[in-house]
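4.2 Preliminary Data

To establish feasibility before requesting continued support, the project team ran the inverse folding procedure on a target of 362 residues. The structure was first converted into the token representation described in Section 3, and no sequence information of any kind was made available to the design step. The complete token record follows.
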């Protein structure tokens, strides 16, 4: 028997007593009251220890045991809180973080705003003019100052970097920082403690590469170097695939995918280096927007969770039975289990899901 932490009350309980999301409604997880406490800046972690649960529906559909690392249950809605809160807390430990600046209307901005509020640090999020108003409203819920600047993201990023040059200020990038990767590695360390045996494969989405870098580091920490990673992108946001084909980091001309939170024009050089090292081996795969959106819709029906297409890209590997294709192509050997990183995404709603279904004729 192994113990798993309840997401809400932090009590330990036998894993077999935790509900499987394929069999019970998520309300079963909410039967205990949340324990609310403010972590100290240099002490307690700000992110939650999220559960690994076996998906009955996905396991039946795929013919293997499918486990879900549910980082969509982080307070701001995505895995980004792990790395970004870790970055900010390490900066606090060195005494150089009186104000946080971040250019993101997506999950990185939400994570920076949430972590800053919990730590009592002023936070300014710079948004380009194209950002929907509801995103600014969500950021303000975390007491962030929201400034609108520039027609595109790069212009907002330039201002955030300029403002962060003030003494005591910290610029928080979306993914390109070693402290962020170190924070993301914690999800694999948790998963290794929560699972009775290592999975045959780990499936994750790739945007700029911060999550993938953290996963590689975590797998090296827990001795999973021989477990392959399937790293998934969508067409039109496939900077990792482009870098692999070119043998070096390249810039996409534009992001044309609906998976905007995968939308980095270039991948982290470290991600490409990890691919070349193959320790663990990384298999890249590109799915269509329709594949990713379809997976989001099916996942909402199966598990009552709303996730973004950036997360749906990983789920599409299961729903699209792509693992079987990779085995046929000799890219994977026979597998019995998969760990899917459900990275989440705060920028989704039932209204957005319905619009996707209409746009993609689902």
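Position-by-position output of the design step:
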């Amino acid at each position: 028997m192994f113990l798993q932490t309840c997401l809400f009350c932090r009590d330990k309980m036998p894993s077999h007593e935790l509900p499987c999301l394929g069999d019970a409604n998520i309300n079963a997880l909410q039967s205990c009251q949340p324990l609310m406490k403010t972590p100290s800046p240099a002490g307690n972690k700000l992110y939650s220890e999220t559960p690994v649960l076996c998906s009955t529906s996905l396991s039946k559909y795929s013919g293997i045991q499918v486990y879900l690392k549910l980082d969509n249950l982080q307070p701001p809605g995505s895995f980004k809180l792990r790395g970004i809160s870790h970055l900010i807390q390490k900066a606090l430990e060195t005494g150089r973080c009186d104000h946080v600046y971040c250019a993101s209307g997506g999950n990185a901005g939400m994570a920076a705003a949430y972590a800053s509020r919990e730590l009592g640090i002023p936070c300014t999020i710079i948004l380009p003019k194209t950002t929907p108003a509801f995103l600014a409203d969500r950021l303000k819920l975390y007491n962030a100052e929201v400034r609108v600047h520039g027609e595109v993201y790069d212009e907002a990023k330039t201002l955030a970097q300029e403002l962060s040059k003030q003494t005591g200020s910290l610029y928080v990038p979306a993914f390109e920082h070693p402290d962020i990767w170190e924070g993301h590695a914690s999800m694999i360390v948790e998963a290794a403690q929560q699972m009775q045996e290592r999975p045959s494969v780990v499936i994750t989405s790739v945007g700029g590469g911060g999550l993938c870098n953290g996963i590689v580091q975590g797998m090296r920490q827990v001795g999973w170097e021989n477990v392959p990673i399937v790293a998934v992108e969508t067409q039109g946001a496939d900077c990792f695939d482009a870098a692999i084909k070119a043998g070096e980091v390249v810039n996409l001309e534009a992001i044309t995918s609906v998976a905007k939170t995968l939308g980095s024009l270039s991948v982290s050089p470290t991600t490409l280096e990890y691919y070349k090292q193959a320790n663990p081996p990384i298999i890249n795969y590109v799915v269509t927007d329709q594949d990713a959106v379809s997976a989001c819709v099916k996942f909402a029906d199966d598990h009552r969770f709303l996730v973004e297409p950036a997360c749906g890209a990983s789920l599409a590997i299961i729903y699209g039975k792509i693992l079987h294709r990779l085995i046929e192509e000799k890219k994977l050997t026979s597998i019995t289990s998969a760990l899917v990183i459900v990275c989440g995404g705060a920028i989704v709603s039932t209204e957005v899901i319905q619009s996707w279904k209409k746009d993609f004729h689902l």
